[in-house]
Amino acid sequence: MAERLQLPQQGVAWPQLKQSMLDMADGDVAWRDGKAAVYVFHSGDEVMQVAHDAYSMFIAENGLGPGAFPSLRQMEKDVVNMALSLQQAPAEGAGSMTSGGSESILLAIKACRDHVLSQRSVDGTPEILAPYSVHPAFDKGAHMMGLKVVRVPCGADFKADVEAMAAAVNNNTVMLVGSAPCFPYGLIDPIGDLSELALANNLWLHVDACVGGYLNPFMQAVLDEPLEPYNFSIPGVSSMSLDLHKYGYAAKGASTVLYRHKDLYRAQAFHFTDWPCGHMYTPTFAGTRPGGAIAAAWAVLNYLGREGYEQRAAQINSARCTLIEGCEGLGLQIYGQPKLSIVAFGWPHGDILAVGEGLYEAGWFSSRVTQPDGIQYMISPEHHKTMPNYLNVLEKYVNEVKQGARTRRQGDVSYS
Ligand SMILES: Cc1ncc(COP(=O)(O)O)c(C=O)c1O
Fold first, then answer.
1. How do residues 280-336 score in pLDDT, each as one tens digit?
2. pTM of the model
3. Where are the alpha helices (DSSP H) in 32-69?
4. What is the DSSP string of 10-28?
């Protein structure tokens, strides 16, 4: 057995460590060259510098202690209020900053479970009813908190099939979910119809806008056609998750979870007294909360402002149009009619996953979809510069597969 690595006896000088880290990063995806269509949301070096500096300023501060750090309390309050305004929440709306989309979703599940079950009983395991396309964070949360997710197949348009979901509602159903947009296809579910279903059955409706929360409000200004409504302007929406570390362009470790009313928000918190230190209150799952992530999000939101976000939405839109046009020119098929930042595409006459393998081997990272098979591309603003390169590489591998020079090597390839 190889010997396990030990902590060095003596510390190593920083310049040497820095070089080691740069060497390790050599093998990482070249996201600055536009090769990451997942994981990284590159919106330019200036924004990154702001996030970096703001993070460094508050790197030691802890959001667990708002009394000790009124600065962080104020920044979180500002971020949450800006988010509530962007999502047209009523005056009674409330929310928190969290560590990411998964934590935001998990907290909404906890709040829903505790709020709904304080008002009525269920026959068996409480159920979350969701379209097949929702993010696995719902399954993770259900697994951890004693609920069950019932995934209902999407319609032919790749969106939630609300009629089929209505047929699946039963006494155990406590939560309905829709995405705005969903991760696999980048499409907004019919939130208005889900809202009617929720109101008619007295159900909690969560809208997962982890991808779209800080994109949709600005995309609307760029698009020629109206975007489907998806936020608190729809009366049945109870809670929303919106990631700052995606299209908010903040440092990683930042999301927001929002509620239509303070009463729903209250069910999210955890209170405990039965230990030697008295009352412990945490509004989110974390104890210690990184001051840097809160500060960086606050700084980037204010640095960019509405205009900065709209400029980036325009860059994403231009890259999306280039991508769709390029794919169609290669005989590829776009899944649904994506208007935002995610485009999924397949190939009716060839093996798209073999093409995806080629891209992956050449260092171009993206996700994939399986129903039907396809490549999923999540566009960052900076991709408007590199999309032509991507399309050239895509064409190369489409041709290789067409000519029989490349076949899929792995049955169940995962390239993310
Ligand atoms: C729609 C959607 N919801 C939730 C998540 C989970 O977010 P995170 O990875 O920040 O936990 C993602 C991540 O990609 C997502 O796309």
1. 999 999 999 999 999 999 999 999 999 999 999 999 999 999 999 999 999 999 999
2. 0.97
3. 45-57
4. S---HHHHHHHHHHHHTTS
Smallest Cα–Cα separation from 183: which of 214, 209, 220, 151? 209
Q: Which atom of ligand 1 is nearest to the CA of 181?
A: 1
Q: How far is the CA of 102 from the centre of ligand 1 (A)?
A: 6
Residues 75 and 137 in one domain: yes
Query: Ligand 1 centroid to 100 CA: how many Å?
Result: 7
**Amino acid 158: pLDDT:** 98
Q: Is 98 in the pocket of ligand 1 (CB under 6 A)?
A: no
Quick one: which atom of ligand 1 is closest to the CA of 255?
10
Q: What is the pLDDT of residue 411?
A: 61
Query: Distance between terminal CA atoms of the chain?
Result: 30
Q: Which of 274, 301, 328 is the last residue of a domain?
A: 301
Do 319 and 209 lie in one domain? The reply is no
Looking at residue 154, the DSSP 8-state letter turns out to be -
278 falls within a domain: yes
Look at ligand 1, atom 7, and give the residue with the nearest C-alpha.
101
| Claim to verify: residue 264 and residue 329 sit in the same structural domain | no
